[in-house]
Amino acid sequence: MVVTNNVDLPEESELTVQEVNLSTAILRAGSFHLGKYCENQNNEFMLCRFEEKDPRKCINEGKAVTACTLEFFRKVKKACLAEFNQYANCIDKSSGEYSFRYCRKTQDVYDKCVFENLNLERPPFGYFCEVRVHDTKRPKPPVEDKAVYPDATPALPEDAEKKPARFGSRFYWMTE
């Protein structure tokens, strides 16, 4: 996007939100439950970004995603801190690529705690790849007409002389 004098940028106060200052291992440990917990806000944000094609129009949806993420981790901290820390520590220390496969036992303990305390079941494998219809309250943006440029170069007329290619066809394998 080219920035000119005509582009209205949001104020810094509109963009300032509390950040989610968590490590990679912690975000990976909570990722499946977080995705399920904040599914509606994430879908709303992604739909806004896809439809509007301008991130400035989706600031409030982005703030909702961040707020939901913070709320989720606060609830996990209150209900299952020991189990979550054990699982995140396992992910962090067991492999260089933060693999889940070495931590299935601690994952099971964490999943049971989240299910019992937050009533949030771990989504099955492939859940986030399934197609869903998202119902939104936001009005659909108007469809922009295709740009027509009056000074476009006209095409060659049909009766124009068409000389053969100077060094032969580049599709030499098709002319046998």
UniProtKB/TrEMBL annotation:
Instruction: List where Basic and acidic residues composition bias occurs.
Output: 138-148
Instruction: Give residue ranges for domain CHCH.
Output: 80-115
Q: Which UniProt keywords are present, listed alphabetically? A: Disulfide bond, Electron transport, Membrane, Mitochondrion, Mitochondrion inner membrane, Repeat, Respiratory chain, Transport, Ubiquinone
What protein am I looking at? NADH dehydrogenase [ubiquinone] 1 alpha subcomplex subunit 8
| Organism whose genome encodes this protein | Papilio xuthus (Asian swallowtail butterfly)
Localisation per UniProt entry: Mitochondrion inner membrane
Q: Which GO terms describe its biological process?
A: mitochondrial electron transport, NADH to ubiquinone
Under the cellular component aspect of Gene Ontology, which terms does the record hold? Answer: mitochondrial inner membrane
Primary location recorded for the protein, binned into one broad class:
mitochondrion
Known role: Accessory subunit of the mitochondrial membrane respiratory chain NADH dehydrogenase (Complex I), that is believed not to be involved in catalysis. Complex I functions in the transfer of electrons from NADH to the respiratory chain. The immediate electron acceptor for the enzyme is believed to be ubiquinone.
Q: Where is this region: Disordered?
A: 138-160
Q: Which PROSITE patterns match?
A: CHCH
Q: Which family does it belong to?
A: Belongs to the complex I NDUFA8 subunit family.
Q: Which domain of life is it from?
A: Eukaryota
